[in-house]
Specification:
single chain; about 260 residues; alpha/beta; six-stranded mixed sheet; four-stranded antiparallel sheet; 10 helices; globular; disordered N terminus
Length: about 260
């Protein structure tokens, strides 16, 4: 049931008192988060802060202990994981998830099949994929992989695999894109490339990302939420949260935020 026009216009997703307990331990505790539509929103925090658990709750890989998840004005707290992507919220995983021994092009064409209901028709003739060919090439061009179209995914450098993963995610035409540590394990050049890619693909959609690289967060994010011990510690722009004494204390050992 929709919660009203204002919610749909301003915030694409909202959590209300979101909590996840494991044997009495609250990994996420009473989190109230609002993500404004059409922005890049970063979720940061020290190791063990509950960031990945929070993502798993949003995408229904974990059941909620308490609270609500509102997406586009609708309560999706008890919606099944497969239905989440059909509603336009798609997650890109921290560990690159592609078909390693298929070509780059075929990885994207397979992803493009999902909305058609043909996802698992691997036994059909290859010609059934041809009609998806043009769109697949567009996506590869968008993520800088046009020259790698015929390479096997396993042959790609790690940074290019992350770009391929984003391309397969974009194939689902998400309204909201959840990125889990998109620059994890990347060298400086690849970080710059993936950061530019995130900025590019954020046009006309909302991005919520968990990210450990604070320079990436500072350069890309409109809003930052700091999570620690499963709770929101601070929220605002990078300039605002980086000067917060509690945030600085939470990041003690790094010397800065």
């Amino acid at each position: 049931m929709a919660t009203g026009a204002d919610t749909r216009t301003d915030f694409i997703i909202e959590t209300r008192g979101l909590t996840k307990e494991f044997s009495g331990f609250a990994a996420v505790k009473d989190v109230n988060l609002k993500v404004r539509r059409g922005t890049i929103h970063a979720l940061i925090g020290p190791n063990g802060a509950g960031k990945t658990t929070f993502f798993n709750l949003l995408t229904k890989f974990l059941p909620v202990t308490a609270g609500q998840i509102i997406y586009n004005g609708n309560d999706i707290t008890n919606v099944k994981p497969a239905a989440i992507s059909r509603r336009g919220m798609v997650r890109s995983f921290q560990i690159s998830a592609v078909f390693q021994h298929m070509s780059v092009l075929d990885n994207v064409r397979i992803a493009l099949q999902r909305p058609t209901g043909m996802s698992f028709h691997f036994w059909k003739a290859e010609s059934t994929l041809y009609r998806l060919h043009a769109r697949a090439l567009e996506l590869l061009e968008a993520v800088g992989l046009a020259d790698y179209r015929d390479h096997l995914a396993v042959e790609l450098p790690y940074g290019r695999k992350r770009a391929l993963e984003i391309a397969t995610t974009l194939a689902l035409d998400p309204e909201m894109l959840l990125l889990d540590e998109p620059t994890s394990g990347l060298g400086h050049e690849d970080i710059d490339r993936i950061s530019s890619l995130i900025k590019s693909v954020s046009a006309n959609r909302t991005v919520l990302m968990v990210e450990h690289n604070l320079s990436v967060v500072a350069n890309l994010s409109d809003t930052i939420t700091v999570l620690t011990r499963g709770q929101i510690l601070a929220e605002g722009t990078y300039a605002e949260v980086s000067k917060n004494p509690e945030v600085m204390e939470a990041y003690m050992g790094t010397g800065h935020v």
